[in-house]
Amino acid sequence: MKNIYLKRTICTALAGLMIALTSCGNVSEQKESPASTGKNTSSSAGNADPTTTPDDTIAEPDETNMSVKPLSEVSHENSDETPDDSFNAAYRNYSAELFKTTCAEDIKAGNNVMISPESVMLAIGMTANGAKGETLSQMETVLGGQGIDAVNKAMQYRMTKFMNSDTVNFNVANSVWVLDDSERIKMKQEFCDKVKSVYNADSFIAPFDNTTLNDINSWVNKNTNNMIPSVLDSIKESDVAYLINAMAFEGEWAEKYEDAQVREDDKFTNSKGEEEKVKMLYSEEGGYFEDENTTGFLKYYSGHDYAFMAMLPSEGTDIADYVANMDGEKLSNLWQSAGGSVDVCIPEFSYDYGRELSDDLKAMGMTAPFDENADFSDMAETGSGSLFIDKVIHKTHIELDRFGTKAAASTVVVMTDEACLEAKDKKQVYLNRPFVYAIIDTESGTPVFMGAVNTVNG
Fold first, then answer.
1. Which residue of 167, 312, 411, 429 sits 20 to 30 Å from the alpha carbon of 284, by its own alpha carbon?
2. Where would I find the Serpin domain in this sequence (predicted)?
3. pTM for this prediction
4. What is the spatial distance between Cα 194 and Cα 164, in angstroms, rounded to a whole number?
5. Is 49 left (phi over 0), alpha (psi -120 to 50) or beta?
6. CATH classification (class only), 259-349+423-453
């Protein structure tokens, strides 16, 4: 098979997941602080009924004066143990299920969407290390049916791979923020050590006031290369802990676009049937694939460790119906069959997406962690009530142009104490109408980001 790479792309993918914990019951010292509906939006997703709101301006990360007192002194342990095929298959199933559950409503409404299955798994995975019983079992089910030990091993390997890549810039950061009130919540040392050694998560004690709010947003901003300037709008009185993931990926296309491959006034037909004037990028690629209702291609980033995977539904196939029938096996078959030359075009596009994921995760079977009877006793001791998840906030951003792609995601889990085949003929896949895409890890064929484009100018 002949692969021809005619573009150079800078792909910045950023993801952050923040888990906020709540505990039920009366609440009242720990240490010093470190200084539902999806929509296309550039504003932050946040909590309702705020008690603490951000200052008018958020300090730049290098200006933030955080008095950090980590709760764990262990070191992160790198891993070279590659996840097995069963985990990769489970991860693809989880990704497809998360994508269609969270995004179906907005895709049907004609909105652009993007989520990061990787970010969500990192944050939920960290949180699951503090869960027991049915609470843990349901979280494992949502994460592809793999046990928490398998999830930990896989995430440890993938983080090591991401951070040590010499062909792309990939930052992955995790953190745990705990209310400075030991009568309300006291984190268990074993949990803090576990998430540090596996997820490299620093644990901070904080007063959960405006200083903390700004520190959290600054931490996310810094670790998403300034693409997610804020992830929280407020801190509620009932919030006692946040578990946060942030990711930033920057990669170049294997080959750059020449001026002759860029058309300034091309057309894209959106989901409403309206024509939009767009800048279109043309090239020849070597990763063509197809099935009964899909044509698509892989476009590699420098080093070929990651690729942009474009899936164009057959003419006349509604994109919402297409996504509704997507599963991990389909993703795997398309990825594995990629091969053969194909002429392609990709429109330049950019958009933001935000969604509160609690109802979606419940629909996937994760109800117990959101209940007052949830068991997070391996994470922390609480003064007079149980600890459970209040919200899971997810925000993303993507830009794709002739130079590359910038993508960002931030997910907040709020814990509270309140109640390949060769083509015989030359193929063409022109993304000039609604399409689905993913940024995939080519070693395992698993998506780091997944999205759908219904409109370019909307």
1. 167
2. 96-456
3. 0.85
4. 21
5. left
6. mainly beta
